[in-house]
Amino acid sequence: MKIFFYKSILVFVLFVLAIHLSFGLIKKQVKREYTNFISKEGIEHVKDKIRKEIKNATKKKVLINSEDAELLNNFLIKLKLELEKTKNK
Amino acid sequence: MINKIKSTHSIFLFLTYFIIVIAVLSTFRDFGIHIEEKFHRMNGLYWLNYISHIFNFEKINSITEIKMKEVSDYTLSSVAYYNKYGVIFDLPLAYIEILFNIKKIENVYYLKHLLSFLIFLLSSFFFYKILFQRFNNFFLSLAGTILFITTPRIFGDSFFYKDILFLSFFNIGLYFLLKASDKLSLKNIFFFAIFSAITFNLRIFGIFLPITFFLILIIKSFYNKNIYNYLKYYFFYLFSLICLIIVFSPYLWSNPLTNFLDIFFSLKKDLIGSNIKILFNNEFINNRNIPETYLLTWIFISTPIIIITLFLLGYIFYTKRFIQRLIGIKESQIFNDLWRGRNEQKDFIIFFILTSFYLTLLVFNSPFYNGWRLVYFLNIFIIYFTVYQVNNFIILYKKNDLKKKLISFLVVASIFHNIISLANYHPYQSYYFSDLISDNKKNSFEGDYHGIAGKHLFLKLSTNNKGQKIKIAVASHTPLHRSLEAIDSDLRSNFEVIGQDYKNADFIFKNNISEVNSNLNKKYNIPDNFVKIDELVVKGVIIYEIFKNLK
Asked: Which of B93, B116, B309, B419 could be cross-linked to B161 through a Cys-Cys bond (beta carbons 3.0 to 4.6 Å apart)?
Protein backbone atom coordinates (compact mmCIF):
# COMPACT_ATOMS: atom_id res chain seq x y z
CA MET A 1 0.00 0.00 0.00
CA LYS A 2 2.72 2.40 1.09
CA ILE A 3 5.00 1.68 -1.84
CA PHE A 4 2.00 1.95 -4.17
CA PHE A 5 1.16 5.39 -2.75
CA TYR A 6 4.67 6.74 -3.25
CA LYS A 7 5.01 5.26 -6.71
CA SER A 8 1.63 6.64 -7.80
CA ILE A 9 2.59 10.14 -6.67
CA LEU A 10 5.99 9.91 -8.32
CA VAL A 11 4.58 8.63 -11.62
CA PHE A 12 1.88 11.32 -11.58
CA VAL A 13 4.40 14.13 -10.97
CA LEU A 14 6.81 12.83 -13.61
CA PHE A 15 3.98 12.41 -16.12
CA VAL A 16 2.70 15.96 -15.59
CA LEU A 17 6.23 17.36 -15.85
CA ALA A 18 6.97 15.34 -19.01
CA ILE A 19 3.80 16.64 -20.67
CA HIS A 20 4.59 20.18 -19.60
CA LEU A 21 8.21 20.09 -20.70
CA SER A 22 7.38 18.66 -24.13
CA PHE A 23 3.92 19.49 -25.43
CA GLY A 24 3.32 22.38 -22.99
CA LEU A 25 6.45 24.27 -23.92
CA ILE A 26 5.86 23.95 -27.67
CA LYS A 27 2.26 25.13 -27.23
CA LYS A 28 3.47 28.07 -25.18
CA GLN A 29 6.06 29.07 -27.78
CA VAL A 30 3.54 28.88 -30.64
CA LYS A 31 1.02 30.88 -28.60
CA ARG A 32 3.65 33.53 -27.84
CA GLU A 33 4.58 33.92 -31.53
CA TYR A 34 0.93 34.01 -32.60
CA THR A 35 -0.07 36.54 -29.92
CA ASN A 36 2.84 38.80 -30.83
CA PHE A 37 1.97 38.58 -34.50
CA ILE A 38 -1.73 39.42 -34.15
CA SER A 39 -1.27 42.06 -31.45
CA LYS A 40 -2.02 45.70 -32.23
CA GLU A 41 1.67 46.53 -31.97
CA GLY A 42 2.56 43.59 -34.22
CA ILE A 43 0.21 44.80 -36.94
CA GLU A 44 1.51 48.36 -36.59
CA HIS A 45 5.02 46.98 -36.93
CA VAL A 46 4.12 45.20 -40.21
CA LYS A 47 2.40 48.35 -41.52
CA ASP A 48 5.48 50.42 -40.67
CA LYS A 49 7.70 47.94 -42.45
CA ILE A 50 5.55 48.05 -45.60
CA ARG A 51 5.58 51.87 -45.53
CA LYS A 52 9.35 51.84 -45.18
CA GLU A 53 9.80 49.42 -48.07
CA ILE A 54 7.54 51.50 -50.35
CA LYS A 55 9.47 54.63 -49.39
CA ASN A 56 12.76 52.95 -50.23
CA ALA A 57 11.38 51.64 -53.51
CA THR A 58 10.20 55.08 -54.66
CA LYS A 59 13.70 56.46 -54.10
CA LYS A 60 15.18 54.06 -56.64
CA LYS A 61 15.78 55.31 -60.20
CA VAL A 62 14.71 52.05 -61.79
CA LEU A 63 12.12 50.06 -59.93
CA ILE A 64 12.03 46.99 -62.18
CA ASN A 65 14.36 45.99 -64.99
CA SER A 66 13.24 46.30 -68.64
CA GLU A 67 12.75 42.54 -69.11
CA ASP A 68 10.43 42.30 -66.10
CA ALA A 69 8.65 45.50 -67.19
CA GLU A 70 7.94 44.03 -70.61
CA LEU A 71 6.74 40.76 -69.07
CA LEU A 72 4.44 42.54 -66.64
CA ASN A 73 3.15 44.81 -69.43
CA ASN A 74 2.29 41.80 -71.63
CA PHE A 75 0.66 40.07 -68.69
CA LEU A 76 -1.50 43.09 -67.82
CA ILE A 77 -2.56 43.58 -71.47
CA LYS A 78 -3.56 39.92 -71.66
CA LEU A 79 -5.43 40.17 -68.40
CA LYS A 80 -7.25 43.31 -69.56
CA LEU A 81 -8.27 41.66 -72.85
CA GLU A 82 -9.65 38.60 -71.09
CA LEU A 83 -11.60 40.71 -68.62
CA GLU A 84 -13.13 42.74 -71.44
CA LYS A 85 -14.03 39.55 -73.30
CA THR A 86 -15.88 38.24 -70.26
CA LYS A 87 -17.65 41.58 -69.85
CA ASN A 88 -18.86 41.62 -73.49
CA LYS A 89 -20.30 38.07 -73.35
CA MET B 1 23.35 28.61 33.80
CA ILE B 2 20.67 27.79 31.21
CA ASN B 3 18.52 30.64 32.56
CA LYS B 4 21.46 33.03 32.22
CA ILE B 5 22.01 32.00 28.59
CA LYS B 6 18.30 32.38 27.90
CA SER B 7 18.19 35.86 29.37
CA THR B 8 21.29 36.87 27.34
CA HIS B 9 19.54 35.60 24.22
CA SER B 10 16.39 37.54 25.12
CA ILE B 11 18.45 40.72 25.58
CA PHE B 12 20.11 40.24 22.17
CA LEU B 13 16.77 39.60 20.54
CA PHE B 14 15.14 42.56 22.26
CA LEU B 15 17.98 44.88 21.25
CA THR B 16 17.79 43.73 17.61
CA TYR B 17 14.06 44.40 17.43
CA PHE B 18 14.40 47.67 19.35
CA ILE B 19 16.98 49.00 16.89
CA ILE B 20 14.84 47.96 13.91
CA VAL B 21 11.71 49.60 15.34
CA ILE B 22 13.56 52.85 16.11
CA ALA B 23 15.10 52.92 12.61
CA VAL B 24 11.71 52.31 10.98
CA LEU B 25 9.85 54.82 13.14
CA SER B 26 12.25 57.53 12.07
CA THR B 27 12.12 56.72 8.34
CA PHE B 28 8.73 55.21 7.43
CA ARG B 29 7.35 58.55 6.24
CA ASP B 30 10.05 58.76 3.55
CA PHE B 31 8.21 56.14 1.49
CA GLY B 32 5.70 57.21 -1.13
CA ILE B 33 2.17 55.97 -1.66
CA HIS B 34 1.55 52.75 -3.54
CA ILE B 35 -0.77 53.13 -6.57
CA GLU B 36 -3.09 50.38 -5.27
CA GLU B 37 -3.49 51.81 -1.78
CA LYS B 38 -6.53 53.78 -2.84
CA PHE B 39 -8.20 50.58 -4.00
CA HIS B 40 -7.41 48.88 -0.69
CA ARG B 41 -8.80 51.82 1.27
CA MET B 42 -11.95 51.58 -0.83
CA ASN B 43 -12.01 47.79 -0.29
CA GLY B 44 -11.95 48.26 3.48
CA LEU B 45 -14.67 50.92 3.42
CA TYR B 46 -16.85 48.88 1.02
CA TRP B 47 -16.86 45.80 3.25
CA LEU B 48 -17.22 47.84 6.43
CA ASN B 49 -20.26 49.41 4.82
CA TYR B 50 -21.57 45.92 3.94
CA ILE B 51 -21.10 44.65 7.51
CA SER B 52 -22.57 47.77 9.08
CA HIS B 53 -25.60 47.35 6.84
CA ILE B 54 -26.05 43.70 7.93
CA PHE B 55 -25.64 44.45 11.64
CA ASN B 56 -27.53 47.74 11.50
CA PHE B 57 -24.66 50.01 12.58
CA GLU B 58 -26.28 53.09 11.11
CA LYS B 59 -23.60 55.63 12.01
CA ILE B 60 -20.77 53.58 10.51
CA ASN B 61 -22.95 52.88 7.51
CA SER B 62 -23.52 56.55 6.76
CA ILE B 63 -19.87 57.51 7.38
CA THR B 64 -18.62 54.77 5.04
CA GLU B 65 -21.09 55.90 2.36
CA ILE B 66 -19.68 59.43 2.50
CA LYS B 67 -16.07 58.26 2.58
CA MET B 68 -16.56 55.92 -0.37
CA LYS B 69 -17.78 58.84 -2.47
CA GLU B 70 -14.69 60.83 -1.46
CA VAL B 71 -12.27 58.03 -2.36
CA SER B 72 -13.83 57.46 -5.77
CA ASP B 73 -11.48 58.03 -8.68
CA TYR B 74 -11.96 57.61 -12.45
CA THR B 75 -9.04 55.16 -12.72
CA LEU B 76 -10.08 53.08 -9.71
CA SER B 77 -11.47 49.60 -10.31
CA SER B 78 -14.91 49.03 -8.85
CA VAL B 79 -14.78 47.11 -5.55
CA ALA B 80 -18.29 45.80 -6.23
CA TYR B 81 -16.78 43.98 -9.23
CA TYR B 82 -13.29 43.19 -7.86
CA ASN B 83 -14.77 42.04 -4.57
CA LYS B 84 -12.71 38.93 -3.94
CA TYR B 85 -9.71 40.61 -2.34
CA GLY B 86 -9.00 39.74 1.28
CA VAL B 87 -10.29 42.14 3.91
CA ILE B 88 -8.27 40.93 6.87
CA PHE B 89 -6.16 44.12 6.87
CA ASP B 90 -8.25 46.60 4.87
CA LEU B 91 -11.44 46.25 6.89
CA PRO B 92 -10.02 46.76 10.42
CA LEU B 93 -7.96 49.68 9.11
CA ALA B 94 -11.08 51.27 7.60
CA TYR B 95 -12.69 50.95 11.03
CA ILE B 96 -9.63 52.48 12.74
CA GLU B 97 -9.76 55.38 10.24
CA ILE B 98 -13.34 56.08 11.29
CA LEU B 99 -12.83 55.36 15.00
CA PHE B 100 -9.92 57.79 15.36
CA ASN B 101 -11.45 60.20 12.86
CA ILE B 102 -8.23 60.45 10.83
CA LYS B 103 -8.77 63.43 8.55
CA LYS B 104 -5.54 63.67 6.58
CA ILE B 105 -5.46 61.03 3.85
CA GLU B 106 -1.67 60.73 3.99
CA ASN B 107 -1.95 59.82 7.69
CA VAL B 108 -4.38 57.00 6.86
CA TYR B 109 -1.84 55.54 4.46
CA TYR B 110 1.18 56.00 6.72
CA LEU B 111 -0.66 54.35 9.60
CA LYS B 112 -1.33 51.40 7.30
CA HIS B 113 2.36 51.33 6.29
CA LEU B 114 3.46 51.25 9.90
CA LEU B 115 1.00 48.55 10.94
CA SER B 116 1.93 46.49 7.89
CA PHE B 117 5.58 46.65 8.89
CA LEU B 118 4.81 45.75 12.50
CA ILE B 119 2.90 42.66 11.33
CA PHE B 120 5.91 41.73 9.19
CA LEU B 121 8.18 42.22 12.21
CA LEU B 122 5.90 40.07 14.37
CA SER B 123 5.98 37.34 11.72
CA SER B 124 9.78 37.54 11.67
CA PHE B 125 9.71 36.55 15.34
CA PHE B 126 7.82 33.39 14.34
CA PHE B 127 10.48 32.85 11.69
CA TYR B 128 13.12 33.14 14.41
CA LYS B 129 11.22 30.49 16.40
CA ILE B 130 11.07 28.18 13.36
CA LEU B 131 14.83 28.52 12.93
CA PHE B 132 15.64 28.15 16.62
CA GLN B 133 13.47 25.06 17.01
CA ARG B 134 15.10 23.53 13.94
CA PHE B 135 18.80 24.43 14.39
CA ASN B 136 18.95 24.97 18.15
CA ASN B 137 21.58 27.67 17.60
CA PHE B 138 20.69 31.14 18.87
CA PHE B 139 23.15 33.21 16.84
CA LEU B 140 22.44 31.30 13.63
CA SER B 141 18.68 31.77 14.13
CA LEU B 142 19.13 35.46 14.95
CA ALA B 143 21.33 35.92 11.86
CA GLY B 144 18.69 34.15 9.73
CA THR B 145 15.96 36.39 11.15
CA ILE B 146 17.98 39.55 10.43
CA LEU B 147 18.59 38.34 6.86
CA PHE B 148 14.86 37.65 6.57
CA ILE B 149 13.93 41.17 7.69
CA THR B 150 16.65 42.98 5.77
CA THR B 151 16.32 41.25 2.38
CA PRO B 152 16.10 44.56 0.46
CA ARG B 153 13.07 43.98 -1.76
CA ILE B 154 11.14 42.35 1.06
CA PHE B 155 11.95 45.14 3.51
CA GLY B 156 10.98 47.80 0.93
CA ASP B 157 7.63 46.17 0.23
CA SER B 158 6.87 45.42 3.89
CA PHE B 159 5.24 48.85 4.19
CA PHE B 160 2.82 48.25 1.32
CA TYR B 161 0.69 45.54 2.97
CA LYS B 162 0.03 43.47 -0.13
CA ASP B 163 2.53 40.76 -0.91
CA ILE B 164 4.38 41.05 2.39
CA LEU B 165 1.19 40.85 4.40
CA PHE B 166 0.60 37.48 2.77
CA LEU B 167 4.23 36.51 3.45
CA SER B 168 3.77 37.47 7.12
CA PHE B 169 0.64 35.42 7.71
CA PHE B 170 1.93 32.52 5.61
CA ASN B 171 5.01 32.51 7.82
CA ILE B 172 2.94 32.38 11.02
CA GLY B 173 0.77 29.66 9.42
CA LEU B 174 3.92 27.73 8.56
CA TYR B 175 5.11 27.98 12.17
CA PHE B 176 1.86 26.42 13.38
CA LEU B 177 1.98 23.80 10.60
CA LEU B 178 5.42 22.73 11.83
CA LYS B 179 4.19 22.80 15.40
CA ALA B 180 1.03 20.79 14.64
CA SER B 181 3.08 18.28 12.64
CA ASP B 182 5.40 17.89 15.63
CA LYS B 183 2.69 17.61 18.22
CA LEU B 184 -0.91 16.97 17.27
CA SER B 185 -3.05 18.83 19.78
CA LEU B 186 -6.36 20.63 19.42
CA LYS B 187 -4.73 23.92 20.48
CA ASN B 188 -1.96 23.72 17.84
CA ILE B 189 -4.41 22.65 15.16
CA PHE B 190 -6.85 25.43 15.99
CA PHE B 191 -4.12 28.09 15.79
CA PHE B 192 -2.95 26.55 12.54
CA ALA B 193 -6.52 26.74 11.21
CA ILE B 194 -6.78 30.43 12.17
CA PHE B 195 -3.62 31.40 10.30
CA SER B 196 -4.37 29.13 7.34
CA ALA B 197 -7.75 30.88 7.01
CA ILE B 198 -6.17 34.35 7.19
CA THR B 199 -3.53 33.30 4.64
CA PHE B 200 -6.23 31.95 2.33
CA ASN B 201 -8.20 35.15 2.78
CA LEU B 202 -5.23 37.14 1.47
CA ARG B 203 -4.17 34.87 -1.40
CA ILE B 204 -5.39 31.62 -2.83
CA PHE B 205 -1.82 30.24 -2.56
CA GLY B 206 -2.61 29.74 1.14
CA ILE B 207 -4.21 26.44 0.08
CA PHE B 208 -0.74 24.87 0.15
CA LEU B 209 -0.83 24.83 3.97
CA PRO B 210 -3.81 22.43 4.39
CA ILE B 211 -2.58 20.28 1.47
CA THR B 212 0.87 19.91 3.06
CA PHE B 213 -0.64 19.11 6.46
CA PHE B 214 -2.76 16.37 4.87
CA LEU B 215 0.26 14.86 3.14
CA ILE B 216 2.35 14.89 6.34
CA LEU B 217 -0.41 13.08 8.24
CA ILE B 218 -0.69 10.44 5.49
CA ILE B 219 3.07 9.81 5.50
CA LYS B 220 3.08 9.66 9.31
CA SER B 221 0.19 7.21 9.32
CA PHE B 222 2.28 4.73 7.27
CA TYR B 223 4.74 4.60 10.11
CA ASN B 224 2.47 4.97 13.15
CA LYS B 225 -0.43 2.89 11.78
CA ASN B 226 -2.76 5.32 13.49
CA ILE B 227 -4.71 6.62 10.54
CA TYR B 228 -8.07 7.08 12.33
CA ASN B 229 -6.52 9.28 14.98
CA TYR B 230 -4.88 11.43 12.28
CA LEU B 231 -8.10 11.63 10.29
CA LYS B 232 -9.97 12.76 13.39
CA TYR B 233 -7.53 15.63 13.86
CA TYR B 234 -7.54 16.49 10.19
CA PHE B 235 -11.32 16.71 10.06
CA PHE B 236 -11.29 18.96 13.11
CA TYR B 237 -8.73 21.15 11.30
CA LEU B 238 -10.73 21.16 8.09
CA PHE B 239 -13.96 22.03 9.86
CA SER B 240 -12.30 24.90 11.78
CA LEU B 241 -10.62 26.09 8.60
CA ILE B 242 -13.85 26.22 6.58
CA CYS B 243 -15.71 28.04 9.37
CA LEU B 244 -12.89 30.56 9.80
CA ILE B 245 -12.51 31.17 6.06
CA ILE B 246 -16.20 32.09 5.95
CA VAL B 247 -15.94 34.27 9.07
CA PHE B 248 -12.93 36.18 7.67
CA SER B 249 -14.47 36.71 4.19
CA PRO B 250 -17.69 38.75 4.11
CA TYR B 251 -17.77 37.98 0.39
CA LEU B 252 -18.69 34.38 1.27
CA TRP B 253 -21.45 35.23 3.72
CA SER B 254 -24.28 35.60 1.21
CA ASN B 255 -23.58 32.39 -0.69
CA PRO B 256 -20.60 30.47 0.73
CA LEU B 257 -20.26 27.61 -1.74
CA THR B 258 -20.91 29.46 -5.02
CA ASN B 259 -18.81 32.43 -4.00
CA PHE B 260 -16.01 30.18 -2.79
CA LEU B 261 -15.87 28.45 -6.19
CA ASP B 262 -16.07 31.85 -7.84
CA ILE B 263 -12.80 32.85 -6.15
CA PHE B 264 -11.04 30.05 -8.04
CA PHE B 265 -12.75 30.66 -11.37
CA SER B 266 -12.23 34.41 -11.31
CA LEU B 267 -8.50 33.97 -10.74
CA LYS B 268 -7.86 33.31 -14.37
CA LYS B 269 -9.69 36.31 -15.77
CA ASP B 270 -9.74 39.06 -13.14
CA LEU B 271 -7.15 39.04 -10.48
CA ILE B 272 -3.77 39.05 -12.18
CA GLY B 273 -3.82 41.77 -14.88
CA SER B 274 -5.33 40.99 -18.24
CA ASN B 275 -3.06 40.54 -21.22
CA ILE B 276 -0.71 43.37 -20.50
CA LYS B 277 2.82 43.69 -21.76
CA ILE B 278 5.67 43.59 -19.27
CA LEU B 279 9.29 44.56 -19.73
CA PHE B 280 11.50 41.54 -19.16
CA ASN B 281 15.14 41.48 -20.17
CA ASN B 282 14.68 44.32 -22.66
CA GLU B 283 11.73 42.63 -24.36
CA PHE B 284 8.04 43.32 -23.97
CA ILE B 285 6.31 40.04 -23.27
CA ASN B 286 2.70 39.12 -22.62
CA ASN B 287 2.12 38.58 -18.89
CA ARG B 288 -0.14 35.60 -19.58
CA ASN B 289 2.53 33.80 -21.53
CA ILE B 290 5.77 34.39 -19.67
CA PRO B 291 8.98 32.43 -20.31
CA GLU B 292 9.77 29.48 -18.00
CA THR B 293 12.76 31.39 -16.69
CA TYR B 294 10.79 34.49 -15.64
CA LEU B 295 10.47 33.74 -11.94
CA LEU B 296 13.94 32.28 -11.46
CA THR B 297 15.56 35.17 -13.34
CA TRP B 298 13.81 37.72 -11.16
CA ILE B 299 14.69 35.92 -7.93
CA PHE B 300 18.35 35.64 -8.97
CA ILE B 301 18.78 39.24 -10.07
CA SER B 302 17.01 40.80 -7.11
CA THR B 303 18.31 38.76 -4.19
CA PRO B 304 21.76 39.38 -2.66
CA ILE B 305 24.34 37.05 -4.16
CA ILE B 306 25.56 35.44 -0.89
CA ILE B 307 21.99 34.55 0.09
CA ILE B 308 21.13 33.08 -3.30
CA THR B 309 24.37 31.03 -3.43
CA LEU B 310 23.86 29.58 0.05
CA PHE B 311 20.21 28.89 -0.75
CA LEU B 312 21.12 26.95 -3.88
CA LEU B 313 23.72 24.90 -2.04
CA GLY B 314 21.27 24.17 0.78
CA TYR B 315 18.46 23.27 -1.60
CA ILE B 316 20.69 20.95 -3.65
CA PHE B 317 22.01 19.33 -0.48
CA TYR B 318 18.51 18.64 0.81
CA THR B 319 17.28 17.42 -2.62
CA LYS B 320 20.10 14.88 -2.65
CA ARG B 321 19.12 13.68 0.80
CA PHE B 322 15.43 13.52 -0.20
CA ILE B 323 16.21 11.41 -3.26
CA GLN B 324 18.28 9.05 -1.10
CA ARG B 325 15.36 8.67 1.32
CA LEU B 326 12.94 8.15 -1.57
CA ILE B 327 15.08 5.42 -3.09
CA GLY B 328 15.50 3.74 0.31
CA ILE B 329 11.77 3.32 1.02
CA LYS B 330 10.84 -0.22 2.07
CA GLU B 331 7.41 -1.73 2.77
CA SER B 332 8.18 -1.89 6.49
CA GLN B 333 10.85 0.00 8.35
CA ILE B 334 11.39 1.40 11.81
CA PHE B 335 11.68 5.06 10.73
CA ASN B 336 9.43 7.42 8.83
CA ASP B 337 10.05 7.00 5.13
CA LEU B 338 11.08 10.50 4.12
CA TRP B 339 12.67 11.85 7.29
CA ARG B 340 14.46 10.82 10.43
CA GLY B 341 13.47 12.82 13.46
CA ARG B 342 11.65 16.10 13.93
CA ASN B 343 14.30 18.36 12.40
CA GLU B 344 14.35 16.50 9.13
CA GLN B 345 10.55 16.50 9.11
CA LYS B 346 10.68 20.32 9.20
CA ASP B 347 13.17 20.34 6.31
CA PHE B 348 10.86 18.05 4.35
CA ILE B 349 7.83 20.31 4.90
CA ILE B 350 9.77 23.38 3.77
CA PHE B 351 11.19 21.53 0.77
CA PHE B 352 7.80 20.12 -0.18
CA ILE B 353 5.97 23.47 -0.11
CA LEU B 354 8.70 25.26 -2.07
CA THR B 355 9.09 22.58 -4.73
CA SER B 356 5.42 21.74 -5.20
CA PHE B 357 4.50 25.43 -5.33
CA TYR B 358 7.13 26.21 -7.93
CA LEU B 359 6.14 23.22 -10.09
CA THR B 360 2.46 24.21 -9.84
CA LEU B 361 3.26 27.71 -11.08
CA LEU B 362 5.26 26.23 -13.93
CA VAL B 363 2.67 23.68 -15.02
CA PHE B 364 -0.27 26.09 -14.79
CA ASN B 365 1.66 28.79 -16.61
CA SER B 366 0.73 31.35 -13.97
CA PRO B 367 0.63 34.96 -15.10
CA PHE B 368 2.97 37.44 -13.40
CA TYR B 369 3.89 41.06 -13.58
CA ASN B 370 6.40 43.34 -11.94
CA GLY B 371 8.91 40.71 -10.96
CA TRP B 372 8.33 38.07 -8.34
CA ARG B 373 6.46 40.26 -5.85
CA LEU B 374 3.31 38.10 -6.06
CA VAL B 375 5.37 35.24 -4.61
CA TYR B 376 7.60 37.19 -2.21
CA PHE B 377 6.60 34.66 0.44
CA LEU B 378 9.12 32.32 -1.23
CA ASN B 379 11.74 34.37 0.63
CA ILE B 380 10.78 32.38 3.76
CA PHE B 381 12.08 29.24 2.02
CA ILE B 382 15.08 30.99 0.49
CA ILE B 383 16.31 32.18 3.89
CA TYR B 384 15.45 28.85 5.52
CA PHE B 385 17.66 26.93 3.08
CA THR B 386 20.35 29.63 3.39
CA VAL B 387 20.46 29.05 7.16
CA TYR B 388 20.24 25.29 6.55
CA GLN B 389 23.38 25.43 4.41
CA VAL B 390 25.25 27.56 6.96
CA ASN B 391 24.32 24.95 9.56
CA ASN B 392 25.65 22.21 7.22
CA PHE B 393 28.95 24.10 6.95
CA ILE B 394 29.12 24.50 10.74
CA ILE B 395 28.66 20.73 11.18
CA LEU B 396 31.10 19.96 8.37
CA TYR B 397 33.83 22.25 9.68
CA LYS B 398 33.26 21.82 13.39
CA LYS B 399 36.91 20.75 13.84
CA ASN B 400 38.37 23.41 11.58
CA ASP B 401 38.41 26.77 13.36
CA LEU B 402 39.54 28.78 10.37
CA LYS B 403 36.78 27.52 8.10
CA LYS B 404 34.23 27.99 10.87
CA LYS B 405 35.32 31.61 11.24
CA LEU B 406 35.12 32.03 7.48
CA ILE B 407 31.51 30.86 7.52
CA SER B 408 30.68 33.25 10.38
CA PHE B 409 32.34 36.04 8.41
CA LEU B 410 30.22 35.18 5.36
CA VAL B 411 27.01 35.43 7.39
CA VAL B 412 28.05 38.71 9.02
CA ALA B 413 29.13 40.08 5.61
CA SER B 414 25.75 39.12 4.19
CA ILE B 415 23.93 40.95 6.98
CA PHE B 416 26.11 44.05 6.50
CA HIS B 417 25.57 43.91 2.75
CA ASN B 418 21.80 43.89 3.32
CA ILE B 419 21.94 46.78 5.77
CA ILE B 420 24.17 48.87 3.49
CA SER B 421 21.85 48.13 0.55
CA LEU B 422 18.84 49.23 2.63
CA ALA B 423 20.61 52.53 3.33
CA ASN B 424 21.77 53.04 -0.27
CA TYR B 425 18.39 52.32 -1.83
CA HIS B 426 16.27 54.10 0.79
CA PRO B 427 13.31 54.58 0.30
CA TYR B 428 13.37 52.55 -2.94
CA GLN B 429 14.50 49.19 -1.52
CA SER B 430 11.65 47.61 -3.52
CA TYR B 431 13.80 48.15 -6.63
CA TYR B 432 16.96 46.51 -5.35
CA PHE B 433 19.07 44.58 -7.85
CA SER B 434 21.99 42.27 -7.13
CA ASP B 435 25.40 43.98 -7.40
CA LEU B 436 26.42 41.56 -10.14
CA ILE B 437 23.90 43.10 -12.54
CA SER B 438 25.10 45.95 -14.76
CA ASP B 439 23.21 49.27 -14.70
CA ASN B 440 22.12 48.74 -18.27
CA LYS B 441 20.68 45.35 -17.42
CA LYS B 442 18.89 46.70 -14.33
CA ASN B 443 16.94 49.10 -16.55
CA SER B 444 15.92 46.37 -18.95
CA PHE B 445 13.42 45.14 -16.36
CA GLU B 446 10.28 46.79 -14.99
CA GLY B 447 10.88 49.58 -12.52
CA ASP B 448 8.66 51.60 -10.21
CA TYR B 449 5.40 49.70 -10.61
CA HIS B 450 4.25 50.87 -7.16
CA GLY B 451 4.61 54.50 -8.26
CA ILE B 452 6.19 55.36 -4.92
CA ALA B 453 8.54 57.88 -6.55
CA GLY B 454 5.53 60.12 -7.26
CA LYS B 455 5.94 61.75 -3.85
CA HIS B 456 9.58 62.60 -4.62
CA LEU B 457 8.57 64.08 -7.98
CA PHE B 458 5.83 66.33 -6.56
CA LEU B 459 8.00 67.58 -3.70
CA LYS B 460 10.85 68.31 -6.10
CA LEU B 461 8.65 70.20 -8.58
CA SER B 462 6.95 72.19 -5.84
CA THR B 463 10.36 73.26 -4.46
CA ASN B 464 11.57 74.34 -7.92
CA ASN B 465 8.32 76.04 -8.99
CA LYS B 466 6.98 77.62 -5.81
CA GLY B 467 3.26 78.41 -5.87
CA GLN B 468 2.86 77.86 -9.61
CA LYS B 469 0.10 75.68 -10.99
CA ILE B 470 1.82 72.78 -12.79
CA LYS B 471 0.34 70.43 -15.37
CA ILE B 472 2.06 67.04 -15.55
CA ALA B 473 1.52 64.46 -18.26
CA VAL B 474 2.47 60.83 -17.71
CA ALA B 475 4.43 58.80 -20.27
CA SER B 476 3.90 55.49 -18.51
CA HIS B 477 1.17 53.17 -17.20
CA THR B 478 1.39 54.70 -13.70
CA PRO B 479 -1.74 56.49 -12.35
CA LEU B 480 0.47 59.29 -11.05
CA HIS B 481 -2.37 61.38 -9.62
CA ARG B 482 -2.81 58.81 -6.84
CA SER B 483 0.65 59.71 -5.53
CA LEU B 484 -0.65 63.21 -4.80
CA GLU B 485 -2.21 61.79 -1.65
CA ALA B 486 1.31 61.30 -0.24
CA ILE B 487 1.93 65.06 -0.03
CA ASP B 488 0.40 67.80 2.04
CA SER B 489 -3.09 68.86 0.95
CA ASP B 490 -1.92 72.51 0.47
CA LEU B 491 0.64 71.40 -2.12
CA ARG B 492 -1.75 69.00 -3.85
CA SER B 493 -3.79 71.80 -5.42
CA ASN B 494 -0.67 73.08 -7.27
CA PHE B 495 -0.62 70.00 -9.48
CA GLU B 496 -2.84 68.72 -12.22
CA VAL B 497 -2.07 65.30 -13.68
CA ILE B 498 -3.36 65.21 -17.26
CA GLY B 499 -2.61 61.69 -18.47
CA GLN B 500 -1.18 61.57 -22.01
CA ASP B 501 -2.33 65.07 -22.97
CA TYR B 502 1.29 66.02 -23.75
CA LYS B 503 0.54 69.19 -25.71
CA ASN B 504 -0.99 70.92 -22.68
CA ALA B 505 1.64 69.73 -20.22
CA ASP B 506 4.39 71.74 -18.52
CA PHE B 507 6.25 68.58 -17.59
CA ILE B 508 6.18 64.91 -18.53
CA PHE B 509 6.85 62.17 -16.00
CA LYS B 510 8.29 58.93 -17.36
CA ASN B 511 9.28 55.63 -15.81
CA ASN B 512 9.74 52.24 -17.46
CA ILE B 513 6.31 50.86 -16.66
CA SER B 514 4.30 50.26 -19.80
CA GLU B 515 1.35 48.01 -20.53
CA VAL B 516 2.10 48.16 -24.27
CA ASN B 517 5.24 47.42 -26.26
CA SER B 518 6.81 50.90 -26.13
CA ASN B 519 9.24 49.99 -28.91
CA LEU B 520 6.33 49.66 -31.36
CA ASN B 521 3.52 51.62 -29.74
CA LYS B 522 4.16 55.38 -29.75
CA LYS B 523 1.71 56.11 -26.93
CA TYR B 524 4.46 56.95 -24.44
CA ASN B 525 6.92 58.63 -26.84
CA ILE B 526 8.12 62.00 -25.57
CA PRO B 527 7.26 64.82 -28.06
CA ASP B 528 10.19 66.71 -29.62
CA ASN B 529 9.41 69.99 -27.82
CA PHE B 530 10.24 68.41 -24.44
CA VAL B 531 13.76 68.12 -23.00
CA LYS B 532 14.91 65.98 -20.12
CA ILE B 533 15.69 68.21 -17.15
CA ASP B 534 16.11 65.71 -14.34
CA GLU B 535 16.03 62.08 -13.33
CA LEU B 536 16.08 60.03 -10.16
CA VAL B 537 18.67 57.27 -10.34
CA VAL B 538 19.27 54.91 -7.43
CA LYS B 539 22.31 52.63 -7.74
CA GLY B 540 22.00 52.62 -11.51
CA VAL B 541 18.23 52.04 -11.56
CA ILE B 542 16.39 54.87 -13.31
CA ILE B 543 13.36 55.36 -11.08
CA TYR B 544 11.88 58.21 -13.15
CA GLU B 545 12.74 61.02 -15.59
CA ILE B 546 11.23 64.51 -15.92
CA PHE B 547 10.88 66.31 -19.25
CA LYS B 548 10.10 70.03 -19.57
CA ASN B 549 8.03 71.69 -22.26
CA LEU B 550 10.13 74.27 -24.16
CA LYS B 551 6.98 75.77 -25.78
From this structure: B116
